[in-house]
Amino acid sequence: MHLLKDAQLTQSVALAAAGAAVATAPLDLSQTPPNEHNFEVELTLPKLADLADGKSVTATLEDSEDGVSFAAIPELANFAVTGSGGNGSAAATRRVRLPSSARHQLRATVATESAAGDLTAHKFTLALVF
Fold first, then answer.
1. What's the rounded mean pLDDT across residues 19-47?
2. Which one, 18, 36, 99, 119, has the greatest CB density within 10 A?
3. Which distant-in-sequence residues (6+ apart) come within 8 Å of 119 by Cβ?
4. CATH number for the domain that contains residue 103
């Protein structure tokens, strides 16, 4: 199990206003060991007590060759939380391994559904874990 994080390989971003999306700064995977099995990618959303019932916050991992043009990594499912029961959503973390086809620039785009509530005080975190 991977437990070590490097601050230089961690990016956090405040969640976007409802109906908008925001992206983390990219991580350059060429700074990591060349074998994709040496690390995992960790996506973390905090408890979102103000997330409206039935509304979601969705994170998508994207890669790029040039650090400018990013596209979703098709082999990986989106990471989403949905508000329910008037309590918002619990904190959530997902760890994934990148497919061998992943390009060397990695970022996450986090979209907040319209009418989801004001979540801008909360941060999403993307980290490489060794």
1. 83
2. 119
3. 15, 16, 18, 48, 50, 51, 57, 112
4. 2.60.120.1110
Q: What is the pTM of this model?
A: 0.90
> Among all chains, which residue has been given the structure tokens 């619990």?
90
Residue count (the chain): 130
Q: Which residue has the higher pLDDT, 64 or 8?
A: 64
Give the whole-angstrom CA distance, residue 55 versus residue 42: 23
Domain of residue 28 covers 5-129
Contact in structure between 78 and 59 (CB atoms under 8 Å): yes
In 1-130, which ranges are E strands? Answer: 5-14, 21-23, 27-28, 40-45, 56-64, 71-72, 79-82, 92-96, 105-112, 123-129
Tens digit of each residue's pLDDT (9 = 90 or more) over 68-117: 999 999 999 999 999 999 999 999 999 999 998 899 899 999 999 999 99
